[in-house]
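#structure-requests
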Amino acid sequence: MATMNAAFITECGPASNIQYGEIQRPEPGPNQVLVRTGAAALNPVDTYIRNGANYWELPNPFVVGCDVAGTVEAVGSDVTELSVGDRVWGTNQGLLGRQGTFAEYCAIDQEWLYKTPENVTDEDAAACSLVGVTAHLGLFRDAKINADDTIFVHGGSGGVGAMVLQMAKIAGARVITSAGSQEKAERCKELGADDVILYKEENETEAIARLAPEGVNVFWETLREPDLESIVEVMAERGRIVIMAGRDARPPFPVGPFYVKGLHMFGFVMFKAPPCELKACADDINNWLSSGQLKAQISHRLPLSDAAQAHQIQEDNTLMKAGTIAGKIVLIP
């Protein structure tokens, strides 16, 4: 029986519950592809699932992780689109009861995988996976951003924020974002931000109002505790608000100003999008990565054996606002 090294848990709990060692190597089912992992990327949702925030039963042992990029090692009998030797990337693993990606090999249904362009590395493809499709779904499927729009993105150097910033610029929009340091502000400018607000030095709501006196057309909220009063205050007529975090948040809602402005609010999670919607996202992401229009934001590179440390770093930043990462944590087997 073939084995492999993987980062896994046998019980939900803190990052220290993650073990690294040998488990059984998966065999691909008829509709599955066996991927030899080149890189995996970490997302906040990975830490929530590891900690027990699950609506579905987990395999045991459960390999953590949603994102992967690597090379096809074997294909199931019903696989038609991929072949042994193809380089691929994907996301949406480790969710809805599926096994995760922090392992030397992953067996993944073919509809969740996309061919990696020749000039794109596994690290970059993995780093853009979940955050890239999240940004794409929210911007293009839901908010329908266009070149006439002004968008505000909370935290333009973060995992999702950096993708939203770049994709909004690709769409031709004017982008205002926020950053917690001058260094992160400079990175946002490099990615194409038109204006960056240093939120530790100035009132964010007042700064947005100054930069966009007519209001913003799209407001992308990445914070887990959104201030809807302030958000609605800076919106333009018929503006669109995108919410994608804060599972336990219950903020006050300014009903009057919201409906009088004719606003729309979109809430979504990428793992509920069907394969056809994610494929449309992936096609654009591949084109933009290959052309250099979209750049992966990698903050930390760690060996897969340091998965527990990686989870702790991510959690410290997501929950405790440590401010020690700008972009993604990528793990290499």
